[in-house]
Amino acid sequence: MSTAAVNDSATEDTRPPKVQRQVLVALSGLLSALFVTTLSSTVVSTALPRMIGALHGTPTQYTWVVTATLLSTTATTPIWGKLADLFSKKNLVQIAVAVFALGSVAAGMSQSPGQLIAARTLQGVGVGGVQSLVQIAIAAMIPPRERGRYSGYLSSVTALSTIGGPLLGGLIVDTSWLGWRWCFFISLPVAVAALVLLQRTLRLPVIRRDDVKVDYLGAALIASGVSVLLIWISFVDNSFAWASWQTAAMVGAALVLLSVALWVEARAAEPIVPLQIIRQRTTVLAILGSLAAGTAMFAASVYLSQYFQVSRGYTATQAGLLTIPMMGGILVSSILAGRLLSRTGNLKPFVIVGSVLLTAGFAGLGTIDHRTSLVFMSAAMLCIGLGVGMTMQNFVLAVQNSVPLKDIGTASTTVTFFRSLGGTFGVTVLGAVLARQVAERTAQGQESARVAYGDATGLVFLIGAAVAALGIVAAVLLKPVTLRTSLDSSEPADLRRG
After folding, report:
1. What is the pLDDT of residue 7?
2. Of 116, 266, 284, 391, which residue is most buried, by most CB within 10 angstroms?
3. What is the rounded CA–CA span in Å between residue 303 and residue 252?
4. How far does the chain reach from its first CA to its final CA, in angstroms?
5. Is the confidence at residue 91, as pLDDT, over 70?
């Protein structure tokens, strides 16, 4: 589809049906790529014990099968965003899908834990590219005012793959004639289909520049600093104590690397993360809100699945089914909120209501123990789902609306980067808290591991509620913004109002 097809001021409801069909056709490849890459991040959660057992891995290697993907995804996100501002977005998203597919093949053929970890790292590079570039491509096609409806589709696909991943993983490993390797091989047909759809349907303008300069030094420093922090948070309180020389060395090294990166970014001709965007009020608040939404999404998908299996004794498949209220809430709220947002153009009420629902849902789960009613938990999960659906993509949309088209890639991936970083840190820290609580309760000899796990999970979600409350603060402080109807602006248009 051409840019002209969408670069007008008509609202979604007044567009010709042919144009709407063109947009949906172009989105088919993007959403397919997003679905399969996001699914790969969660489908392994219920299959990991079988994988590590078959490959004779250690508990540390068990952790790194997950952490390796998070590391490479988070560290490469800003790099993909900057490349999207310099080169063809269509070519880049195809390259990201191809990298992901290669990583999936390598993971499925792994013969040792080390090979699996390396393959998952390669997968993560592709995942980071697809997750950021899909949002960038949508922003390059559709004006902010009309983007709400399509952001709803994006949120729904993300939710379906994130929450449905553990269910699919459980079904795969419980099916004798498949086995854990199909957790990776199953992605290949969808990835190939996405490549074909992208080639046939996606038409984006390419602005060629002769003075392109990629800030490789800044990218390397940011990736290194973030990687050291994530490695530290992955091992602290397990391999070494919080107050130890390892913590001092790793945190100190990360701070030095990130400080040098800040100095480099302030002087680079084409910085990976432009500081003028970070300093904008809208971006700062969107980052804060996205941290809350990201932590909620990751924590809910990881710890609810474990709670149902470890404490309540359900199978992996049953645990996935029990999270349907949350998935349903995300699907419904993201689509309905997206349509209403396209009609009104007023973003702030949606992120406020969504942040309140998100916090309320986590506060409800903060009261659970090993005997809590599933009806009560379903209501709390529904609130979380409704909240995530109304906030996750809308905070990104607020930033996209505040910058000109030439900076859309960097701005979008900056928010995505911090959301992923916050979610990774949040899940890891909450996991450390949960492990310590379970160990203390079982050491006293008063509770079994099953009971201790169920009772301790409530504390994890209570902490999650405190993090989610930051989203309310961000949403309230966000100035009212009316989404623009033009695809581009010669100035940071909606910073006029916030």
Report:
1. 43
2. 391
3. 30
4. 32
5. yes
